[in-house]
Design brief:
Radius of gyration: 19 Å
Order of helices and strands: EEEEEHEEEHHHEHEHEEHH
Structural class: alpha/beta
Strand order of the largest sheet: 8-9-10-5-11-12
Number of strands: 12
Number of helices: 8
Distance between the termini: 32 Å
Largest sheet: 6 strands, mixed
């Protein structure tokens, strides 16, 4: 059992995840080098192995430049690894798949489309009919608290509201795998807290598999079932920590608990004392 400050941590909870469930994502012996023109090769990832179960919520943490986003982009099929294999639903990833959706720190909304039409966009490019698109978009906008703003354009929305629209657009296609790259990083602290809680409730209803990249250790512990700690470049998996908080989670109770404080301190210590394998 893992200890924190000399005290045994609580047994990890599965967060509603079936431990016998087959892996949805498998990363095997992954290595990657960036080859910038006129400069020495940059070893970004080294021998990364990771398995993510169906319906599980994973958070990737580590120092800046450790390869978290590179790994996420490879799972998304946006970058081809130098060596190793990534599979999603048993199929080797060679390109982006309709089974996945990705959300970024910036909302990337189309300024000429209303909130409703932005949420419809993913369904539109998949060929869904107009009525289906409209019904799904309205339902998801309502879930993120923006049912009254479907006709508003991005310029008329606050940053928090824009990020909610981006969240709704991501969820509207009902992805099997949801990839999140610092999706709440641009928000102020209060808005970020509110959206984290809203997203957690929606995710618990949907049961979509999620991989989150974040620099916020508390966010990782509040949202995830497991936190994967990566070393400085070249990024390796240093440790995987089970999050002991049961679901559904009471964010107010968990956020101010001593257990979260101790776990966060432990993870910050692991990140701070991990040994770099290359220059930062």
């Amino acid at each position: 059992m893992k200890t924190i400050n000399g005290t045994a941590a609580s047994p990890p909870a599965t967060g509603g995840v079936d431990m016998m469930c087959d892996s949805l994502v498998s990363v095997e012996a992954l290595n990657h080098y960036y080859l910038p023109r006129g400069r020495a090769a940059v070893h970004a990832l080294s021998d990364v192995n990771l398995s993510v179960r169906q319906g599980e919520f994973i958070a990737l943490v580590g120092s800046s430049g450790c390869g978290k986003t590179t790994l996420l982009n490879m799972i998304a099929g946006l970058i081809t690894p130098t060596s190793g294999r990534i599979s999603v639903l048993g199929e080797t990833v060679t390109r982006p798949s309709r089974e996945m959706s990705m959300m970024f720190a910036r909302d990337c909304l189309l300024p000429w489309r209303s909130a409703l039409h932005n949420v419809e966009y993913g369904l539109e490019i998949r060929g869904a009919g107009r009525r289906e698109r409209r019904d799904v978009a309205r339902e998801v906008l309502s879930k993120v608290g923006l049912g009254e703003f479907e006709d508003a354009f991005p310029a008329a929305l606050s940053q928090g509201m824009r990020q909610r629209v981006a969240m709704a657009r991501t969820l509207a296609t009902h992805p099997r795998l949801l990839l999140l790259d610092e999706p709440f990083a641009a928000l102020d602290a209060q808005t970020r807290t509110d959206i984290q809680a809203e997203f957690s409730k929606i995710w618990e209803d949907l049961g979509t598999t999620v991989i989150l990249v974040t620099h916020d250790i508390n966010e990782a512990l509040l949202l995830a079932d497991r936190v994967v700690v990566m070393t400085p470049r070249p990024g390796r998996i240093l440790e995987t920590v089970d999050v002991p908080f049961t679901r559904p989670r009471d964010f107010t109770e968990v956020r101010f608990s001593q257990e979260l404080t101790d776990l966060a301190a432990y993870l910050w210590g692991r990140i701070g004392h991990s040994t770099p394998g290359g220059a930062q």
